[in-house]
Design goal:
The protein has 2 domains: about 120 residues, Rossmann fold (3-Layer(aba) Sandwich); about 90 residues, OB fold (Dihydrolipoamide Acetyltransferase, E2P) (Beta Barrel). Helices cover about 25% and strands about 35% of the residues. The protein is built from 6 helices and 17 strands. The strands form 5 sheets. Strands 2-1-3-6-7 form a 5-stranded parallel beta sheet, sandwiched between helices. Strands 12-11-10-14-13 form a 5-stranded antiparallel beta sheet, with no helix packed on it. It has a 3-stranded antiparallel beta sheet with strand order 15-16-17, with helices on one face.
Length: about 230
């Protein structure tokens, strides 16, 4: 694996690199970056994991993952700003490790990535004034609901998310696809693509649910479902 460590405190960056090599193996390669610009250059090369501090020489660490394609690389935040954990998960971060951290805590975060344990990924949803973390693997589809989004789950009633579909599309993994202006669906749950009278297209999900497909989305969707 290739790991980029974006951390402006040199002692901490070296410790993270040393522990990560011990955990992932001696073949692991590293790029250490103290600032956002330096880290951005490092990420131009194929990267598997970004270990990210949120304060990089006074700049915002989240700038490195904001608007990047989901799944391009995995991100672990290592930061003393634990109050920003929810924001981190909304950007699709795999784990948030609070400083000061132990080897064991960092190992848990890295192991989740090394074993591709996708059930550890969550959406943070505000509910009755509290934050509820919903496993991404439980999300069947998302429907636009005005200024909110309705997240339909496989194991319970739908929940409302305070982000628009465009914003959620940036957070969700690559197997979620925008099939319609009002719908994002987990393609792994699609049984088939259906065309009905009047050239109206729908996807049928595993549970029989029918969702509309925008005409401009049909060709690309066919390729993805093939």
């Amino acid at each position: 694996m290739r790991v980029v460590v974006a951390e402006d405190e040199a002692i901490i960056a070296r410790r993270i690199a040393r522990l990560t090599r011990e955990i992932l193996g001696p073949e692991t390669t590293f790029a250490l970056a103290a600032g956002v610009s330096e880290a951005r250059e490092a990420l131009k090369e194929q990267t598997d994991i970004l270990i990210l501090d949120l304060n990089l020489e006074g700049d915002e660490g989240f700038d490195l993952i904001r608007n990047r394609p989901s799944g391009e690389f995995e991100t672990i935040v290592v930061s003393a700003h634990s109050d920003r954990a929810l924001e981190a998960f909304e950007y699709g971060v795999r784990d948030f490790v609070a400083k000061p951290f132990t080897r064991e805590r960092l190992e848990r975060a890295l192991t989740r990535i090394a074993t591709r344990d996708s059930s550890r990924r969550f959406l943070g949803i505000r509910k009755r004034g509290e934050i509820e973390f919903v496993p991404v693997d439980d999300v069947v589809y998302v429907r636009g609901a005005g200024t909110l989004s309705e997240v339909v789950l496989g194991s319970g009633p739908p929940v409302l998310h305070d982000k628009l579909l465009d914003q959620l599309q940036e957070i969700l993994p690559a197997h979620f696809d925008r099939i319609h202006k009002s719908y994002i669906v987990d393609l792994r749950r699609v049984r088939r693509l259906i065309v009905r009278e009047g050239s109206r297209y729908f996807v049928e999900l595993e549970d029989g649910t029918m969702l509309p497909v925008g005409r401009t989305k049909v060709r690309a969707l066919r390729r993805k479902l093939a």
